[in-house]
Amino acid sequence: MKQKKPLFKRIFAAKELYLLLIPGLIWYLLFAYRPMTELRIAFYDYNVFQGIEGSTFVGFDNFIEFFTGRDFLRVLKNTLMISFWQLLICFPVPIALAICITEMRNKFISRMTQMSTLLTHFISVVVVCGIVINFLSPSTGVVNLVLEKLGVEPIYFMTKPEYFKGIYTLMTLWQNAGFDALVYIAAIMGIDPQLYEAATVDGAGKMKKIFHVTIPGITPTIVTMLILKLGGIIKVGYEAILLLYQPATYSAADVISTYSYRLAFENGNYGLSVAAGLFESVVAFIMVILANKFSKKISDSALW
Amino acid sequence: MAGKKAKQGQVMGFGEKTFNVFMVLLGILITFIALYPIYYVLISSFSKPFFVENGDVLLGIKEFTTASYEAVFKRDGLWMAYGNAIFYTVFGLIANMFFTTTMAYALSKKSLVGRKFFTLFVIFTMWFNAGIIPTYMNFNNLGLLNTRAAIIFGFAIETYNLIIMKSFFEQVPEALEEAAFIDGAGHFRVFWNIYLPLSKPALATVGLFYGISRWNGYFWTMQLLKDDDKIPLQVFLKKLIVERVANPSDAAIVTRDSLTSPTTQVYALIIMAILPMVVVFPFVQKYFKTGLTLGGVKG
After folding, report:
1. pLDDT for B99-143, tens place per residue?
2. DSSP assignments along chain A, one per residue
3. Structural contact between residues B294 and B205, judged by C-beta atoms closer than 8 angstroms
4. Residue A292 confidence (pLDDT)
5. Is residue B12 very low, low, confident or very high in pLDDT (cuts 50, 70, 90)?
6. What does the pLDDT read at residue B297?
7. Which 8-state DSSP code applies to residue B227?
8. Segment A74-92 mean pLDDT
9. pLDDT for A88-100, tens place per residue?
10. Which of A287, B96, B146, B299 is the most exposed place for a label (fewest CB within 10 A)?
């Protein structure tokens, strides 16, 4: 019925809704959309002191410099490799953890496992990186102290590029596995108990039930999460990497976002920095759209 | 996952029992992996540094001392940073809840003309964002660099949380508000008197997500705030435990009798930093699950 009323009447009737909408709308304009206008820096030889008016327009020069520069392949490879390890380790482990937690018949043990793995998610990235750096310190870190007792020479973990990706992967796993498992635990709780009863009647053991009831039951959730992860493959969080890396490990640790960060805030090359950042944002955007299309096709439900 | 294949059979016999014992051991192992690093930091912070740096503190405290905490308490800026962290968390959370709930309510109503457009307007920012440098330049152009307002208002909405809130509001039965509308109430009153009281679990969940990211956030506070008297705890910690900026009064060499050292002080600081989180954790952890059952990321 309401649809039949003239547009302005409907808008007027909803005037209080618009008043409630306005603070958020202003926020999005000021802090989410206004920054996008600054992306034009990517097309300028940007001079911080003179602003955009005092800088020369250079077209796509910054992009050409970025794509042909010697750092491009390195940062792209690091970005994809870190994402690859995240997919290989940090994606399946929470699924396994969720199955274990729900399979534990001892309620106390089950609860203890879930609480302790979730607790690590509450700790800030600064503290987690601080723990990692201090534990791996060659002179006073517990890891090297134990290695020393075993007769191994101290290893300078944080300065060795070959260790970086492993350290980063294990650190994020430790911090997030419990939190990432929550969504699968919720999915397992949603499986019809009759399916398990039927499997028991058929004589299925524990492992058979896990593989033939639990895992098929949470497959839609797994697929959704996997697509989400694949959509974000080009975006590797910069917060932890900025804390963990150092010049000695740039070769293995530098991803697009950290490279863009250093170009601007350490080298003052804003044009090139924003061009690199824009490249990342555009690829991420395309990936998310593709992921959503793909998800619609296979599960009839969009992610958004 | 269980490595052993449980014996198949109709009876809950040997296979089932082995499986259950295995799961108990696995649970203990996982708990150990999750908690041992924190436990190690705790026992080291209360031990004499000589033992810590010799690798003798692995299971329990060696020669109890609170000297590291006393040294940390006296560090310039610690209490200021602690106070700032509380300030940003409290006022930031108020801003978060105001901007998020008002907008989520408006977007949840079908009578909002242009609802689809506004929803897309919001969700688009999850798909595409300007990036670090443009965001920084924006704060610069708005004259908000090195201001507390930048931290409190600049991060007032996280789109993911807004969507959770909106999904929850959409699940409130319309019948509840219709009576209020017939009595002449407007959307303000329906929002305030009906929706907010009904949404306590969702408010707790979203508030928890915002609260954690306020307390734990370091990147933008580090990037936007320059004055030492404005920085919150995480930025302060970054200097001390990541860059390990040493206390000038500390002795460089640790002897058998040293009561404290840079290393044990770092551990004491870490305990100070995670203590508030560990204290509130048991009370709030159940809301994590609520957040996931609220429809998650679906818009």
Report:
1. 999 999 999 999 899 999 999 999 999 999 899 999 999 999 999
2. -GGGS-HHHHHHHTHHHHHHHHHHHHHHIIIIIHHHHGGGGGGEE--TTTTTTTSEE-TTHHHHHHHHSHHHHHHHHHHHHHHHHIIIIITHHHHHHHHHHHH-SSHHHHHHHHHHHHHGGGS-HHHHHHHHHHHT-TTT-HHHHHHHHTTPPP--GGG-HHHHHHHHHHHHHHHHHHHHHHHHHHHHHTS-HHHHHHHHHTT--HHHHIIIIIHHHHHHHHHHHHHHHHHTTT---HHHHHHH--GGGHHHH--HHHHHHHHHHTT--HHHHHHHHHHHHHHHHHHHHHHHHHHHHHHS----
3. yes
4. 83
5. low
6. 40
7. S
8. 96
9. 999 999 999 999 9
10. B146
Task: Please answer yes or no on whether B288 and A126 come within 8 Å at the CB atom.
Answer: no
Taking a C-beta distance cutoff of 8 angstroms, is the pair B52, B263 a contact? yes
DSSP 3-state assignment of B60?
coil
Q: Is A289 on the interface with B (CB under 8 A)?
A: yes
> Which H or E element spans position B236?
helix B233-237
For residue B55, the chain A residues in CB contact (below 8 A) are 142, 145-146, 148-149
pLDDT of residue B4: 40
Amino acid present at A234? I
| pLDDT given for residue A4 in this prediction | 65
β partners of residue A56: A45
Q: How far apart are CA A10 and CA A13, in angstroms?
A: 5
Q: How far is A29 from chain B (nearest CA, A)?
A: 10
For residue A301, the model assigns a pLDDT of 54
Joined tokens for residue A286: 């395309």
Give the count of beta carbons closer than 10 Å to the beta carbon of residue B184. 7
Pair A53, A44: CB distance under 8 Å: no
Pairing of strands A44-45, A56-57: antiparallel
Q: Which residues of B touch A146 (CB under 8 A)?
A: 55, 58
As a whole number of angstroms, the distance between CA B224 and CA B151 comes to 8
Between CA A132 and CA B173 the distance in angstroms is 49
pLDDT at position A299: 65
Neighbours of B12 (CB within 10 A): 13
Q: Provide the pLDDT confidence category of residue A129 given band limits of 50, 70 and 90.
A: very high
- Residue carrying structure tokens 């020069």: A61
